[in-house]
Amino acid sequence: MNLDKISDLYAKHLLLEKGLAANSLESYRHDLFVFVDFMVKNGLENIENVDTAAIIAWLINLKNGGLAARSRARHLITIRGLFKFLLQEEIIKTDPVKIVDIPKTGLYLPEVMSVEEVEKLLSIPDTTIPRELRNSAMVEILYGAGLRVSELINMKVQDINFDAGFVRVFGKGSNERVVPVGSHAKDRTLEWIKTGRPQLLKNIASKYLFVARAGKPMTRQGFWKIIKLYCLKAGIHKNITPHTFRHSFATHLIEGGADLRSVQTMLGHADIGTTQIYTHISKAHLLEMHKKFHPRG
């Protein structure tokens, strides 16, 4: 099948089946264009003719063109998704990308908090104060469910099911997913709803779970400032942002033995290639622990 048609078919799949946001879809389209353009210029107009050697040649061409390793890794993850889709649709029988490794320095390893640092930060809020109780519940859910900050601040009261222990989340591209929350997050949020939230609202109606002024949701910047203040009080000197809790959530799950597919589902990643970064973080953690504690490390 013609590569241009393949590219269009996959882009439609990402739009209709995955519900990607416009910016994300444009990024995928760009990567696909670069890939198809290289193959066609090298006489490989049909997908059946693209083999592992061609994939490697394309990666080398990206490198020679001055593309950084991190960007090359992103391009490769896009093409991995393409070939995975083609296998599922039975358009191809073998995957030439499967054995091609992501460029070693191409994965940006985000800042991750240790379990001890998370616990230290969570001990900072004075939960006898309504706003602090809200902040504590927000951080508990952010870490306990691995949410994006936009997902957290836009949560509605009805989005959390206390009996089942799940939160309903609307992520990128308005994709809905259901994520379990731990007992700590559930208990603290229930306490916030029963005591702190009514005190802050003062008879103002609001559909949002975590309210700020006049029943409106907190802004991203407002929540970021809270995290910075708590890090300062906790003596944590890493560059911690609200998104760091999402990275920490995924890393701690994998280090604890969770399988990659489950973590992918909880994070709401369209492609498991995006989730695989956390296996690299986990491996780095294991190497660090071995070096620190093994007698001949």
The amount of helix comes to 55-70%
Task: Please compute the radius of gyration using only Cα atoms.
Answer: 22 Å
Count of beta strands: 3
Oligomer: single chain
Low-confidence stretches: none
Q: Trace the largest sheet across and list its strands.
A: 1-2-3
DSSP strand (E) fraction? under 5%
User: What is the CA-CA span between the terminal residues?
Assistant: 52 Å
Number of domains: 2
CATH superfamily of the largest domain: Intergrase catalytic core
Report the CATH architecture of the largest domain. Orthogonal Bundle
Give the topology string: H per helix, E per strand.
HHHHHHHEEEHHHHHH
Summarize the structure.
This protein has 13 helices and three strands; from the N terminus they run αααααααβββαααααα. It has helices at residues 3-16, 22-41, 52-64, 69-88, 115-122, 130-145, 149-153, 183-201, 220-234, 242-255, 260-267, 272-275, 277-293, and strands spanning 160-161, 166-170, 176-180.
What features would you describe in this structure?
By secondary structure, the protein is mainly α. The protein has 2 domains: 3-88, DNA polymerase, domain 1 (Orthogonal Bundle), CATH 1.10.150; 115-289, hpI Integrase, Chain A (Orthogonal Bundle). The protein has 13 helices and 3 strands. It has helices at residues 3-16, 22-41, 52-64, 69-88, 115-122, 130-145, 149-153, 183-201, 220-234, 242-255, 260-267, 272-275, 277-293, and strands at 160-161, 166-170, 176-180. The protein has a 3-stranded antiparallel beta sheet with strand order 1-2-3. Helix 5 packs across helix 9 (220-234), helix 6 (130-145) crosses helix 10 and helix 10 (242-255) crosses helix 13. The longest helix is centred in the N-terminal third of the chain and has 20 residues, at 22-41. The mean pLDDT is 86.
